[in-house]
Amino acid sequence: MTEDIKKRIKEVYELMDEILDDRGVPRNIRGIIEQARNKTAAENADEMNFSSAIYLLDDISNDINMPPHTRTDIWEIISKLEAIKELMK
């Protein structure tokens, strides 16, 4: 991975950590965020891992129990993950 990709991944993790630390976010949503983080955390993470993480996040973005600010953060994370995935090609 290039330094640019590592920097972008770090930004995504910071956003994910903010959601994980927010106790106003339902536990099931925090669990999915954690799963997505784990999929992309491996040193050998590839495009497929990022696609899986994007799919998980997209799936929960319509959860009716999600606070509106969290939904916006998840959309931002999805956008950043898609950009990272494109850089990996």
Strand content: under 5%
CA-based shape? elongated
Number of domains: 1
CATH class: Mainly Alpha
Mean pLDDT: 94
- Which percent bin holds the helix content? over 70%
CATH topology: de novo design (two linked rop proteins)
Can you name the CATH architecture?
Up-down Bundle
Order of helices and strands: HHHH
Strand tally = 0
First and last CA, distance: 11 Å
Question: Helix count, per DSSP?
Answer: 4
The CATH homologous superfamily is named Ta0600-like
Quick take:
The chain contains four helices and no strands. The protein is mainly alpha-helical.
Account of the protein in words:
By secondary structure, the chain is mostly helical. It has a single domain, classed as Ta0600-like (de novo design (two linked rop proteins), Up-down Bundle). Helix 1 runs antiparallel to helix 2, helix 2 runs antiparallel to helix 3 and helix 3 runs antiparallel to helix 4. The longest helix has 21 residues.
Any key phrases for this structure?
single chain, 89 residues, mainly alpha, de novo design (two linked rop proteins)
